[in-house]
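quick one
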Amino acid sequence: ETLRVELGERSYDIVVGAGLIKDAGKWIAPVLARPRVVIVTDENVAAHYLAPLTKSLKDASIRVDAITLPAGEQSKSFAQFEKLCESILALGIERSTTLIALGGGVMGDLVGFAAASILRGLAFIQVPTTLLSQVDSSVGGKTGINTAHGKNLVGAFYQPKLVLADTATLNTLDRRQLLAGYSEVVKYGLIDSPDFYEWLENHAQALIDGDMDKRRHAVLTSCAAKARVVAEDEREGGKRALLNLGHTFGHALEAETGYGDALLHGEAVSIGTVMAFDLSQRLGLCPGQDFGRMLAHFDALKLPTDLRRLNAGDWTVDRLMAHMSHDKKVEDGKLTFILANRIGQAFISRDVQNKDVRELLDTWLKNK
Ligand code: NAD
Ligand code: ZN
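structure w/ nicotinamide-adenine-dinucleotide:
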């Protein structure tokens, strides 16, 4: 199935389906300026999908070069960015060459930023292979790398020419990564779609356990939601910020755990989303019942919900507050929170008092 992100002359298609990589040439050839691509992938993904993708492109008479990088968040660094740009230039590419990001959000963010930068802009295509990247990071054009001052602080808005989400690739993804990606799926339900949320309550377990049909439906619905928001607010002047539900808290937790395997992005978002609903409830904005309902759903799936399980022993409210105030979303020193009036109805708030946030963090850090 095909969805479209409507952005005028920067519009593009998102194709979702099982087995798309085998037929990639068919989808990719029509969007290329010239039949030449450079695939950039990480070592884990290369082992499964580089050969079939390359074959399909070559069968479509496309010239293919490939670059394989180490896996993991560490690749979103200045050092890897520099190496990648030099390796791509060393291939003697031209302006008409297209880059293909094959992998999860790390490849998408890094390769997208390289595409935005090399020769002041090469076309690029996203072939996302994690649940997180299929439902979130591959759509919308946010690209970038991490700095010593924090995650994603250097980057560009740069839209791909095509997103090819092959849901069959999720079969080789481990359960922990699937669950982490699921927190970005359920986000769309929690923000503005109570029906999708209810569908997820009924089918998320099957989706996690491997039901291909449920996976396809969840990826399609999530991409459609993201495409709608991005079309309305490409550069996050307003409504796009709703997609940051759980992320203000989440980013503080990621900062505290060092952006590594200790706590995946999606895991931080999962805990952060619980905290955002808890804050909404404490402020009297959201019924306690809705908080209970979302918490029960997260717990049933065994998503992480409690920061005290993170070896949070020496964490302090001050440290977490400091991380939050370094977030990109801070303006005039004011934190932005995505709060909820209920499940399926989130809103952007700049009026949360620091003392209320501190109180919330304090309760979550203490053993109840
Ligand atoms: P990732 O890219 O690191 O992938 C997770 C792991 O799974 C890696 O080890 C990878 O090698 C492996 N892998 C990927 N696909 C696989 C497959 N099909 N089978 C087996 N193994 C596979 O992580 P991610 O969760 O996809 O992305 C996280 C990144 O995305 C973060 O850097 C985050 O900041 C970024 N992000 C960006 C946006 C955006 O809008 N640009 C949105 C959300 C997250
Ligand atoms: Zn996220």
